[in-house]
Amino acid sequence: QKEVEQNSGPLSVPEGAIASLNCTYSDRGSQSFFWYRQYSGKSPELIMSIYSNGDKEDGRFTAQLNKASQYVSLLIRDSQPSDSATYLCAVNHPGAQKLVFGQGTRLTINP
Amino acid sequence: NAGVMQNPRHLVRRRGQEARLRCSPMKGHSHVYWYRQLPEEGLKFMVYLQKENIIDESGMPKERFSAEFPKEGPSILRIQQVVRGDSAAYFCASSPEGGTPLHFGNGTRLTVT
Questions:
Q1: Do A49 and B99 touch (CB under 8 A)?
Q2: N or C: less crowded end of chain A, CB within 10 Å?
Q3: pLDDT tens string B95-105
Q4: What CA dihedral angle connects B15, B18, B31 and B27, to 10 degrees?
Q5: A contacts of B102 (beta carbons < 8 Å)
Q6: What pLDDT digit, counting tens, does each position of B38-63 carry?
């Protein structure tokens, strides 16, 4: 079992709709969770972090965390073509100062 | 306030040559992390260093790869006798002591021909 799993996609969503990206993790000791956006050929860019159960909203982005289910998600409201990118879920490795990444979900927003 | 700086941005090496990748952390950060990203994959942790000390190298291949972070100057990731499978994007992140490395440099894209 991979430590952090994401659907690789591609995920296609029409412009203006809600894009929903999901991630599961295996280590119950994980405490910090991050979503990165990566455009093709570019470096990952941190867009959301979440540390406690529930929802965290920032503009059009909402991160959701459920530690009991070991599940974290990212919702993008009013999707724009500029949101087309690969989204990486990252989880801190308990007891170590490093992040473990999922393989990423490629998202395409169709105009 | 400069971010994490990596150079070169692109590096082409022939099989058997050596590749040296450099990373300068953000100002005030004393810890450096190297990650590798193969095409169509996520980032894989390689090594975590602080000045003059390797903290965690659990993700480093056992042979040909080494990393250092000297007292002065950037961190260096060194790949000896490169092979085609080393072709990837190599990203560096930094953090202050005890912090989580959240922000990455622009990466070095290594191509082995």
A1: no
A2: N
A3: 887 777 788 99
A4: -110
A5: 34, 46, 49
A6: 987 889 999 999 999 999 999 999 99
